[in-house]
Amino acid sequence: MTTRLNYFATSPQAMDILLTQEGYLGEAFKDNKLLLELVKIRVSQINQCALCIDMHSKDAVKFGENFERIYGLSAWRDMPGYSEQEQKSLQWAELITSAQAVTDENYQEALQALGEQTLVDLTIAINAINSWNRIAKAFKPAVGSFDNI
Length: 149
Fold this sequence. Notes:
By secondary structure, this protein is mostly helical. The chain has helices at 7-10, 12-28, 33-46, 50-62, 67-71, 84-97, 104-114, 116-139.
């Protein structure tokens, strides 16, 4: 795969907006980093963003996640070991990413499992990783170059 332009060098102010958002999300999920990484991986799987799957899988391992839960994400409904909060977060991520209608039942389930603040922060995180996925797929940075383990 041929890489394209360096979007960080080309438009640093635009990238700063996204990085500031990531800073907020890192703080919002500081006590639940694994949940955030699982959601980022799952959204990246849906969007088929190899760069982000690689990056966030490595981050999840760094934060203590086990490989079984990472590679089980594509079939999380049928895999044991995901908490109710994780299941509702993954379901919410799939709904938002695929632009499916969020039913009142979906909303109430997510709200009950996550609470108001986490639900809003999670929705922002889902939108953020969708944005990163689209940027990476458009500009094709080298996959596998992220080394954070």
